[in-house]
Amino acid sequence: MTREIDLVVGAGGKVGAALVGALHRHGATVVTTGRAGSVASDLTFDMDKPDYAILPEGVARAYICAAMPGADACAAEPEKAFRVNVTTPVELTRRLAARGAFVVNISSTQIFDGDRPAVSPGTQHSPYSEYGRHKSALEDRLRALPETPGAIVRISKILSLNDPGILAKWRDELVQGRAVSAFRDRAMSPVSLRQAVDALVAVAYGRWSGVSQVSASDEISYLDAALAVARIARANPELVRSVSADDAAGTVPPRHAGLDCGATETRLGWRFARSVQVVKEALGAEQ
Length: 287
Fold this sequence. Notes:
The chain has 287 residues and is α/β, with parallel strands linked by helices. The protein has a domain at 5-156 and 192-215: Rossmann fold (3-Layer(aba) Sandwich). It has helices at 14-25, 71-76, 78-98, 130-144, 166-175, 193-206, 222-232, 262-268, 275-282; strands at residues 5-9, 29-34, 43-44, 59-64, 102-108, 150-155, 158-159, 180-183, 187-188, 191-192, 210-214, 220-221, 240-243. The chain has a seven-stranded parallel beta sheet, with helices on both faces. α1 packs across α6 and α7 crosses α9. 45% of the residues are buried. The model has no long low-confidence stretch (mean pLDDT 95).
């Protein structure tokens, strides 16, 4: 009897690579795709110029992790970015679902403008970035597919030991005795890579259709996050300067970043970590 396959599209990225490891620990038979030249992938699949003929038979669950995020990337190549983020994932979902696969697509908190905390799954989209507009379009097109088994998993900012984001910059500056500035009126709601991947696996194996939301169980201001970094680094907290986003030049983060994850947590049977715990884990202070 042929074993069921878990297909990870975009296995070379942060989420895809971690997901492959989690699936192997789960005992799954995993097939991976990546860009040309990727030594970590079984199959070459270009999201910009897809060759759907390479898709394997026997896929029971598929996870579309490949994306082209970032405002600069989306602005520099808008048509390519739309194909990678919207057109190809939708067509992949349609083709894989027609073969009986349960397909998990990853979305983003950027589909919301961040004016409210703990946004519920049914809230109307109000994207604040080009990438957010792509993810909004992706969700709308996926919902329009007739009788297609699958799920959308919205995930907030993911932090990990190998990719702690702005936390690493703050830490490096603070340990050198240099001041850092952090917004007191903007919040993050990060989730650990570990918990994000565990949620993706649970959604796929549970065949939880619809929208699942993944973020920290609370929000933390950028200022409080920077102060937590100072404590972890044993640096002088007076080096952390409180600033307002209203006084900043250029693009600033949204006011809120958290999602209402209550329904997801009920299905999972466990809660997502608080923001400060995610900060500690990403800096290796909580193992």
